[in-house]
Amino acid sequence: MKNSLREQLGAWLFLSPFLLTLAVFFVYSTGRAFYFSFTDYNMFSEPQWVGFANYISLFQQSLFLRALQNTVLFSLIVTVVQCFLALVMATVLNQKIRGLGFFRATYYMPSIASSVVITLIFLWMYQRRGLINYLWTEGRRHAPIIVFFLVTVSIIQILQVVIERRRGFPARWVDPALTVMSILIGTAVTAGAWVFGFIAVRDLPPVDFTWLQTRMRIPESPEFLRVPVPLIAIMIQNIFTTIPTLMIMYLTALQDVPKSLYEAAEIDGAGATQRFLNITIPSVRPVTFLVVTLSLIGTLQMFDQVAIFGDAVPLESVITLAYFVYNRMFPGAQLPQVGIASAAAIFLALFTLSLVLIQRLFIKSEVS
Amino acid sequence: MLFLKTDENGNPAGTTTEDSNITFWRAKRRWARVGIVYLVMLVFAVLFVGPLLFAAFSSLKINPLEYPPSLRIAELNPVNWVTAARLGNSGSGNYWSGGFAPGGDIPFDIQYFIPDGVEQQTPEIQVPRRRPGAGLGAVRAIEFAADHAEIHDLRVSDTEIGRHEVEDVERAGRFVTWSFRITYAGDGPKIDRVPVDILAAPQHYYISSTLPASRLERRGRVVSFVDIAPGIGRYVFRNYARLFDEARSVTTGQPLFFAWTRNSFFVSVVRVFTNLLFASMAGYALARYHFRGKFLVFLVLLFSQMVPAQVTFISNYLLLRDGLFGLSNLFGRTSLLNSLWGVIIAGAGSGAAMIEAGKVFIMKQFFETISRDVEEAALIDGANQWQRYSRVVLPIARPALGAVAILTFQGAWNEFFWPFIVLTSPEEVKTLPIGLMSFRQTYGAAGDWGLILSGAILSAIPVIILFVVFQKYFIHGVSFGGSKG
Asked: Is residue A330 part of a domain?
């Protein structure tokens, strides 16, 4: 299609609403944030040029350093855990079976609701006598039964595999048919032992772990790894809501990996772990890049959960860089520190960008 | 078959029987694997939907923080539904929403176990003047059932000898049932609920009542009912009714939840239309035309996706505060803060909420995949640029427009950061997510989670419906590379 001057003008007209808003609300505002970051400005007076003073002052503020530490810990731990778990789950689910669509839709539920809805539900579950402490209590009470069951299943499984091998069948240690049998027999044996009183539920007081109003940090040392407990609560919630999304991205990619590759590896005697390491991980590398990038950006800029947890947790325990910016813009009773807020925001942007670039180089170099 | 070198007698393998043996052996493994995969999927489903469903069920409870948490919910027991409907009818003639109106006459029974050797004393029945809920509920003057209720005919209606376990010891004694009626004295307004407290003597152990007790206080001596004439609707969905009854605007008296829902719909729907129109126009221009500066526009578009909302919101907040170059006068105000139009027109993150860069990108990607032939034909027929776009291209673009509409609605409905910055006061100007957060502050501190959970569940329903109906758009949305929201 030839583009006359008239047509070009038309194109600009088509673009104009978008360009106008992009210019005002993105280009201008980014520029202004950049400018503010070099000034002392409280929203009411005229901005005063102060050079790099704001950036230097940032690194002298304990709240900022805490926000930086929280953000880095949060981002790295959550990204690693959720990307890995999403890939493992996708591998398990990568089967041609009926009803997959229904299950996929189900898993997607937590990620379509708003962050507020999910956070409120989790806050409720994190109460001192909430669902999470209850499940923990029940797990501890039933520990003898769970351990007995697992040990029984393992013993039966080992016995069965040995017998099958002696009969000449190529049974693997996690042979599915034998596992089903082991689980069924193990359940029966455990139920029997429970009924006849060989094992019993322990009588323990309810777990009263404080998830929210606490300054506790885990582990006690080293200093740079001490994660505040309320931040762990947000990590669990974040992993819970993001895994399904990432899993679906992985699942889409895995379905393009030819089945024959796995079959060939199986014939060559590669185990499930070897196939996972040598076939699955390399073939989804491009998706891994996307998933890790999205996860990094999302976690580095985590804001909603901190704001919604609000005064239910100590601020220092959960503050992130994104929330620090907000906190300096609207510091309650004090005057806004727009300069400091802008400097922190610019820092956050550069920090995100550089981490994404670094991981890109990292994954790229693995490809070659 | 390399493994099957010999059979049990040490003879060379490979006979027909052996082959069918190993085929059957392998088939068994395939079936078992499918079984295990279904089991694992079921476990995942419980893991991911379990918390949401549990919260949904618990939102029906009077106290969702009941310990131990249980799914045996009195509100879901059909026997109680029948009772609640009957009581509601006797209180106000309304089976569904109950209440207390002139002529109301509510019969009620309560049964205690009294061990042998304990003197039987008639319990005290009281209709307390209790305000429902905390904080936001306290602003409104309400009528109290206490001002109109009269208690009649308090008497023992039944005594039965029996044994009952009391503090881990089975004791002999008697089950005593007291009956009474609460009537509406004279004329007056209809009252929403009739709370009742029943104080019994020591060692009178509460067994049951017409409707199960809402809570036991003072070590079981006070049996408290939040409403003894609820009607079936108010009984099952009590917290949902409270959502609209209690939290009201200070100035207008309108239910806040209603205002927030309306605001959320307004913002979401307007954003869907502006994005459909402007993002498709921009995407079309970027996909179809070559002009100077196109690469730069595209670069800025991509870059805008990478800059965090925390960078842009500072200036955009100030722009709205100062009235956006006088544009605010169009809406008759000097500032666009605390205005829904402010939320729509400006934005944080990639540009304006009304034309999202991400949506422009989706449209551009789509237009690049469709053939130019039809447009060329229209060009020959003498259609101008706008006609080619609106009459030829847009109808073809229906699937992409559908995706943009649904993703925009979901994103707008769930958006937190930008509305949180712009909408701060009064309460009724907020959107649902921001409003729910103030619920958290007022009711969470009081440990009243029924209202918070029911608000959260109710606010999620529109996107859940949208998801169930248009599932494929959501799943595709993920592969468009957009994160959630």
From this structure: yes
For residues B173 and B115, give the distance between their C-alpha atoms in angstroms, rounded to a whole number: 4
pLDDT exceeding 90 applies to what percent of chain B? 52
The pLDDT tens digits of the residues spanning A249-273 come to: 898 888 888 888 888 887 887 877 8
Query: Residue A59: what pLDDT?
Result: 96
Q: Is the ipTM of this complex over 0.85?
A: yes
The answer to whether B215 and B121 are in contact (CB under 8 A) is no
What pLDDT is recorded for position B16?
60
- In order of A323, B153, B242, B347, the CA distances from A338 in angstroms are 14, 70, 41, 18
CB contact under 8 A, A109 and B48: yes
Task: Characterize the bridge pairing of strands B105-115 and B169-184.
Answer: antiparallel
Choose, out of A124, A137, A213, the residue to mutate when testing the contact with B (most B CBs < 10 Å).
Answer: A124
Q: In this structure, what CATH number is given to the domain that contains residue A343? A: 1.10.3720.10
* Tokens encoding B219: 């070590």
Residue A308 counted as domain residue: yes
- For chain B, domain boundaries: 1-58, 74-245, 256-479
Above 90 in pLDDT, residue B472? no
Report the run of H or E that residue B169 belongs to, with start and end: strand B169-184
Average pLDDT over residues A72-98: 90
Record: contact A32-B304, CB cut-off 8 A:
no
What pLDDT shows up at residue B14? 47
The CA distance from B336 to B323, in Å, is 6
Q: Cβ distance A331 to A351 under 8 Å?
A: no
Is A32 in the B-facing interface, judged by CB distances under 8 Å? yes
Give the pLDDT of residue A243: 92
CA distance linking residue A236 with residue B190, whole number of Å: 48
**Number of domains comprising chain A:** 1
Residue B130 is which amino acid? R
Q: Which two tokens stand for residue B257?
A: 């939840």
Q: Are A136 and A207 in contact (CB under 8 A)?
A: yes
Please indicate if any CB of chain A lies within 8 Å of the CB of B318. yes
Closest CA to B245 of B415, B482, B454, B29: B454
| Residue length of chain A | 368
Per-residue pLDDT averaged across B284-289, rounded?
A: 91
Q: Is there a domain that residue A41 lies in? A: no
Q: From the CA of B92, how many Å to the nearest CA of chain A?
A: 35
The CATH architecture to which B256-479 belongs is: Orthogonal Bundle (1.10)
In degrees rounded to 5, what are phi and psi of residue A292? -65, -40
Q: Which residues contact A360 (CB under 8 A, 6 or more apart)?
A: A289, A293
Contacts of A253 in chain B (CB under 8 A): none
Q: Does B309 touch chain A (CB under 8 A)?
A: yes
pLDDT (mean) for B198-218: 91
Question: DSSP string spanning B367-383?
Answer: HHHS-SHHHHHHHHTT-
- Residue A137 pLDDT level (bands cut at 50, 70, 90): very high
Assign B241 to helix, strand or coil.
Answer: helix
Q: Is residue A195 part of a domain?
A: no
**Local structure of residue B122 (DSSP, 8 states):** P
Residue A269 structural domain: 54-142+201-367
CA distance B178 to chain A (A): 34
Statement: residue B11 has pLDDT above 80: no
- Judging contacts by C-beta atoms under 8 Å, the chain A residues touching residue B304 are 22, 26
